[in-house]
């Protein structure tokens, strides 16, 4: 049985970048079912084609503010089964927090990360398969932020490293390989992170990502 290609709707107002992303995704085995240059066009395309994943630039015409994010929120409300990958040229935490907190089939990636082709493709694949991914650059900014009631203040350096890799969507085995520790040690760190951040212990991937997102409300 031939595995079905993940179907992608791509929204990016920069025509050259959009064409480049579409070509890259097609060469990597995805099917591009729609391309859009603004939020309204994207919503219409998603309603027509029902893709597996919508890749959306946060800032699009006409005002280049949160049009892409607004469209993504409409898509999530109407089609919660569709994965959403937000792209941004800058770290824009506050605008994307609500959508990221939904947990499943959602990701946030800085456009600079797209040049790292393998990681970009892996991110799209993870979201298509129901996972969640937060850009490592965003995670690092959050980890180094200093706030009065920072929920991460009590984490050890190793726990912060584990949390960063969790947010990238890596499994316990993947974290263990990256940090040269055992899976059992990773599991202990994850339990400790969830406990320190007052998140319930669970096997669901989206709860792991919420460990990163939780403290955004305290910014």
From TrEMBL:
CDD domains: LuxR_C_like, REC_NarL-like. SMART domains: HTH_LUXR, REC. Keywords: DNA-binding, Phosphoprotein, Transcription, Transcription regulation. Residues 7-126 form the Response regulatory domain. The modification 4-aspartylphosphate is found at residue 57. Residues 148-219 form the HTH luxR-type domain. It comes from the Bacteria. PANTHER family: TRANSCRIPTIONAL REGULATORY PROTEIN NARL-RELATED, TWO-COMPONENT RESPONSE REGULATOR. This is Response regulator. The lineage of its organism: Bacteria, Bacillati, Actinomycetota, Actinomycetes, Streptosporangiales.
